[in-house]
Design goal:
homotetramer, 365 residues, alpha+beta, Chorismate synthase, AroC fold, five-stranded antiparallel sheet, 22% strand, globular
C-alpha cells in the first residue's frame, strides 16, 4: 500500500533512504503562479542540518536541493515540483553487525516483520533523513501560506526536565541556539544537561511547540478531516513523536468546563476569543485564533550504553551501538514539525475553497 | 471537500445530524464472508447510549440500527453495508435563541465561518450523535479483527482528578459502571465528584485509554501512514479530544533513552519486548506487543453557569445554556475511541496484505 | 477494497442491491448554500423509471427519494446528503434456479469468483437498480453546475442499426419518446425495431451521446486526472458500456491531422474553435467548446432464447431466462450517462478552484 | 489539485517537462521482495524511443533510467522507487514564436486558461515525454504481474486506413517493425502510407490494441472501480487518445443479445467462455478470459501545412509549425498503452487481496 504521500489537494510524496543515492519529494497540486526558487527551499533544509555544536551528529551533509521540474521563469506552473538532495557523505562502512540484530527503540524488527528484509544501512527508509522531503515541501507550503498572511513558528519547548520560560520568548533565538529554544537562558541550561547525557552514554527526549498565526476562521472539517485530526496525524507521522496536544491538550482533560471554555468577544468588529484554551480550533475548524500544538518526542534510541537485544538467528545478545549520535532528536525536528503543520494547514485552506457556493461564485462568476 | 469518510480499504462514510430524520454510515470495502447481523452492531450502539444514572443526559433514544444492504444469508457480500438509526425522541423545541449566538466551546461560530450558516438544532452535524456511524462501523471492524485474534479494550482512565488504579483492573466493570472505569472504587469516587460538578453547574474532562491485543508485528507503514499517525488522527477526529498519546506518550519526552528503550527478548521462540514503553509501535509499524493509546477529552462545553459570548448581530451578551447536559463526555466516548481504533487497525491489516510478494503468493499461488 | 465511491471533492458513495430493503447514496463535499429539495432529485429519478410502453420492464417501482440529511431550511449545509429509495415491488420470488447457474453476459460468475458467493436476487449489487444512487447524486451535481451556466443533455443516438438524424434534433423528444431519441421519426422506427427484437426473443444494443454546454476553458488536468480520462471512467463504470468516445472518437483515428485539428478563431473577443473535432477537451483540459461524449452499450444480456451455460456444480446446461426484461438498456441509461458526466465535470470544477494563486486570492483576499 | 498520480495501492506519481532538467516517477506501494534492476526498466523505455526509420522524430535522447531509491541487494524493499531520466538533447532553441500563439490540437490554449501561463518549451508538461514516467513504472508493474502469470501484449492495430490481418499475427514483428504492427505486410504498407503523409505535410491517426493473458477471474469491482472503467481512464489519460473500447466495443452496440452473449462451458474442469465478445470483463470484474482493449489515437497535431490560429494578443494569425515531428503518434504509444494497462491490472490484483475473508486467512492464518 502506498504510504509515502501526504495531503489531498497539495500532495507531497517523499522517497529515499539514508544511504541511497539521494532523497527527495514530489509536490503535486501546487497552485500556479507562486514565485519560487531553490533558495526558498534551502533556507528550510539548512534548519534541519546538524549545527556546529557538541550536541550534533558529526555526519556532514551539504544537503543542497535541486529542483528538477515544475518551475518556469521563476514561478510554479501547476505541474509537479520534483526536488532532490544527494547523499554525499555516507560511507557504506561496516553494517554487517547492525544488519543482523534489532536495535532497541528502532524500526529494525518491525521492518523485517513487515517486508521480510530491510535496507539496514543507516536505518534505510526509517532514517531521520527521510524528513528531507517533508522539509523541502514544507518550505513551499510555508511560502504559499505567507501569501495569505499565515505564518508558522515552531520551537523547542523543553529538553528533558528543562522548560523554556515564555516570559523570555525570543524568536530570534530559535534559529541561533543549538537547541531551537526561544529562550537563551533555558537553552544554555539545556546544553549543559545534554553534555551530561552524552558523558553518561545516554540520550533524552523533549517537546516541540508550534504556533500558527493568521489562519482565518473556517478551515478544517467537522468530522474525520478535522483540522486538529490532520495536524495530529501530520505530527505523529514524524519518527519518535509519542504524543500530540492541541491547545491546552492534556491539561484540558483535568479541568472544569467553566475554566476551559473560551468566551467570545468583539474586538474591532471581529469575533474573537478572550482566551485560547482550545488552541485555535473548535469542532475541527479553525476559529481565527492562534493555532497551538505540541509534539512530545522520545529520546534518541541509539545510545552507547550496553543494551540487550535479539539477533536474526533468534539469539539474545548484548550490544553496544557504535558511531556517534545526537543525544536528542528535538532540535533538528523543529523545522520538521513546522513543515508538517504547514502542509496540513495549506491543504485545509485549499480544501476550503469549495466549502460554500459563495466562494465558488467569486472564482467562476 | 468530502470529509466524512475514514479509511482507505475498509472505508466508512458517516452522515446525519442531531435533529435530522436519521443518522447512519456506509461501510465500503468489507471483505465478503463475515458472519454479521444487526445484533453485532446493536451491542456496540448500546454502549454509547446514556445510562440510567444521574450523570447521563435524559434524552432517551432507542438508537436501533437498521441494516439496509450488504448482508445476504447472514454474511457480508463485499457490497457496501448501509446502516441507519432514526432520531425519534428529539423535540424541534425552541432553538430560536441558540440559533442566534455562539456557544463557547462549541462549533457554532466555526460552522458559520466555514459554511455561511448552520443547522443549529442540537448541534447539527457537530453533535455527539454523529458518532453513531463511527460506532456502528467500529462494531463491524471489531468483529472482523476478532477473526484474526485481535481484541480492543477501551475504558475510562481518569475523570477530573480521579485516576483508576491498574492494580484493581476489572474488565467487567467497564460495562457495568456508569463511568466506564475498570475500577469500581475509583468509579464510585468519580460519581460523587461528578455529582458535585453538576451541583456547581459545571462539567469536567477526563482520559480514555485503549489497549489492543493480538496485533501481529508488521502492520502500519514507515512514513505518513504510520500506524500511530493514523491512530492519532482517528482519535483526534472525535469531538472534544485535545491530546493523543501512544505508549508512554508525554512521559517519554522527559525520559532518558536508557530508560525508554524496550529490550528485545526471546520467549517461546518469539521475539518479544521486555517492556512496552513504545506502546506496541516502532517506526510506525506494530511490533507484536500490546498497543496502548490514550485520548484526553475536554469538559462538556455546555454548562449551566452564566457565560459571556457574542451573537450573530455582533453584540456581546451573557448567556445561560438551558436543557440538561452530561457533566462529562468521557463515559459515552469510550466505545467511540474503541471503534475508531478498530477501524484504524483493520485498515492497516488490510493494507498490509500486499506489503510483500510472499503474502500475495499465498493468495494468487 | 472500497469501490462504491466516485469523485474526489464532490464524492458520492452508492449502496444497495436490487432486492434489498433500499438503495441509496451519500453525497459528501457538496458546497453549502445550494437551494435543494427532494423534487430536484425526483425529476432525475423519474427519468430512469421504466415508461408505460411496450419496450419497458413491467417491474413498477415508485422510486421515491427520501432525503435524510444535509439540508436545512431548503439549502445544503455542507454536511453529507444521504438519500434513499425503498425497494417496494420486488417479489423474493423463486431465485433458486438462477442461484445455481451463471447467466451469460451477466456478472454471476465473476461475483462468485471474487467474493465466493453472491446475492443472486435480481442481480444483487450488479443490478441496474444500483444506478439509482448515481442518478440521485447526478441531480444535485446538475443543479450545482447550472449555477455556473453549465448544462448537460444526454440522449439516445442509435438503437441497433437505427441512428438519429441531427437535422431533426428535437430536445423535447428526449423526454417524450420511449427511446430517449431527440428525433421522433427515428424513435418510431426504433420502437418497431425493438418490437421485432422482442418477438424474436432477442435484445439489441445502442449508443448514448451526451453534450455539455457552458463549461469554461481550464477544467481538468494535464496528466492522469484529464477531464476526458475521468469522463471515460465515469461512463465505462456504468454497467453494459463497452466503449467511450470523446469528440469525433474512433473517427479521429482514421483521419489526417489537417482534417482533425480545430483552428482557433476570435469571436466577440473570445478565443473559440472554428470546428470541434476534439469534443471540447485539449490535453485533458476543457477548451470552452461544447464537450461531446458517446457511450456504446451492449444488448440486454437477459434474453428468452435458449442459451448454453454452466452451473455451480460444473455441469454444462441449457437455460431459458424467465421473467420479463427490456429488449434494450439504452433508454433508461440516458439519465445515468448524464448523471455520471455531471459528477465528473462538477468535480473538475471544484478541483480547479486552487489551480492558480489568482483564484485563491479571490476567496482569501 | 494533485493530478499526477495513478493507482490506489500501487501508486505512481510522474513529474517533469519536455525541456526541464529531467523527467521521472515515484512508484509507491510496490510489494517488497521483487527482483528488479535498471535493465528491467530500460527495456521498456527503449520501446518508446524513436526508431531509426524515416517516420520517427530526429530528437535523439538516450533516455537512460537512474533508480534512486527503493531497491536493496537487487530486490524491492517496499519503500518508494524513485526513477529519473535526464533530458540531454534538447536545445532551448527559439520558442519565442510558439510562446505567443496557440497551436491547433495542442494544449497551449487550455494550459493558459487553467494556469494563467505555461512552460511552452516543447509542450512542457503536456509533451509526450511525460509518458517516460508511465513506461518506467509500467515496466515494474509488468514484471510484478509476470510473477502471477499475467502478460500484456500491445501492438498497432491500424494506421489510417491500413489494418493488420490477425491471420498474419507475428508477435516478434511488434518490436521489429517501425510501426509496432504484428503483421509485416501491413507494416510495410503503412510505412509507405506514412511517407506519403509526410510528403503532404500531414499526419494521421491509428489504433492500438492491448491483450492481457493470464488474469484470474475475480479482479475488479462491481461499481465505480470496475476493471474496465479503470482501464478506460488509464488509456484515455494518455495524450491523443480519443476513444477506448473493451472487447467488441462499438460493435456490441449494434448487435443483438443472442450474438453478443458469451456462453459458459467447462474445459478441463474450469469454467470458460466459448467466445469472448465481452473482452474478458463481466460486470466490471475479470472473467478469466483474455482481456482485450483498444485505444483510438488522433493524428499528430503538429503538421507543416499552414494553419489558422490566434495569438495571446487575441489576433487571428496563420502559422506554419517548424521543426520535425512524427507523422503519427501510434507506434511510440504502444508501450505506453501496455504500461497503463499493466498499472491498472496490478492495482486491481492488489486491491482484490482483501475481497473475501478467505483470502485474508491465507495471509494472517
Amino acid at each position: 500500500m502506498a504510504g509515502s504521500s501526504f495531503g489531498n489537494i497539495f500532495r507531497v510524496t517523499t522517497w529515499g533512504e539514508s544511504h541511497g543515492i539521494a532523497l527527495g519529494v514530489v509536490v503535486d497540486g501546487c497552485p500556479a503562479g507562486l514565485s519560487l526558487d531553490s533558495g526558498d527551499i534551502q533556507v528550510f533544509l539548512d534548519r534541519r542540518k546538524p549545527g556546529q555544536t557538541k550536541i550534533a551528529t558529526p555526519r556532514k551533509e551539504a544537503d543542497e536541493v535541486e529542483i528538477l521540474s515544475g518551475i518556469f521563469e521563476g514561478r510554479t506552473t501547476g505541474a509537479p515540483i520534483s526536488m532532490l538532495v544527494r547523499n554525499t557523505s555516507h560511507h557504506s562502512a561496516d553494517y554487517s553487525e547492525i544488519a543482523n540484530y534489532y536495535r532497541p527503540g528502532h524500526a529494525d524488527y518491525t521492518f523485517d516483520a513487515k517486508y521480510g528484509f530491510r535496507d539496514y544501512r543507516g536505518g534505510g527508509r526509517s532514517s531521520g533523513r527521510e524528513t528531507i522531503g517533508r522539509v523541502a515541501s514544507g518550505a513551499i507550503a510555508s511560502k504559499l501560506l505567507s501569501e495569505f498572511g499565515i505564518t508558522l513558528t515552531a520551537y523547542t519547548k523543553s529538553i528533558g526536565p528543562i522548560d523554556i520560560d515564555m516570559e523570555r520568548f525570543d524568536r530570534q533565538a530559535i534559529l541561533e541556539t543549538s537547541t531551537g529554544m526561544p529562550d537563551r537562558e533555558a537553552s544554555a541550561h539545556a546544553e549543559r544537561y545534554l553534555a551530561d547525557c552524552m558523558k553518561e552514554y545516554d540520550s533524552v527526549g523533549g517537546v516541540i511547540e508550534c504556533v500558527i498565526d493568521g489562519v482565518p476562521a473556517g478551515l478544517g472539517d467537522p468530522v474525520f478531516e478535522k483540522l486538529d485530526a490532520n495536524l495530529a496525524k501530520a505530527v505523529m507521522s514524524i519518527g519518535a513523536v509519542k504524543a500530540v496536544e492541541i491547545g491546552d491538550g492534556v491539561e484540558a482533560a483535568r479541568r472544569r468546563g467553566s475554566k476551559n471554555n473560551d468566551s467570545f468577544r468583539m474586538v474591532d468588529g471581529q469575533v474573537v476569543k478572550s482566551t485560547n484554551h482550545a488552541g485555535g480550533i473548535l469542532g475541527g475548524i479553525s476559529d481565527g485564533s492562534q493555532i497551538v500544538l505540541r509534539a512530545h518526542i522520545k529520546p534518541t534510541p541509539s545510545i552507547f550504553s550496553p543494551q540487550q537485544t535479539v539477533n536474526k538467528a533468534g539469539e539474545e545478545i548484548d550490544i553496544s551501538i557504535k558511531g556517534r549520535h545526537d543525544p536528542i532528536i528535538v532540535p533538528r525536528a523543529v523545522v520538521v514539525v513546522e513543515s508538517m503543520a504547514a502542509l496540513t494547514v495549506l491543504d485545509a485552506l485549499l480544501a476550503n475553497a469549495g466549502a460554500k457556493l459563495e466562494n465558488l461564485k467569486k472564482i467562476y462568476g
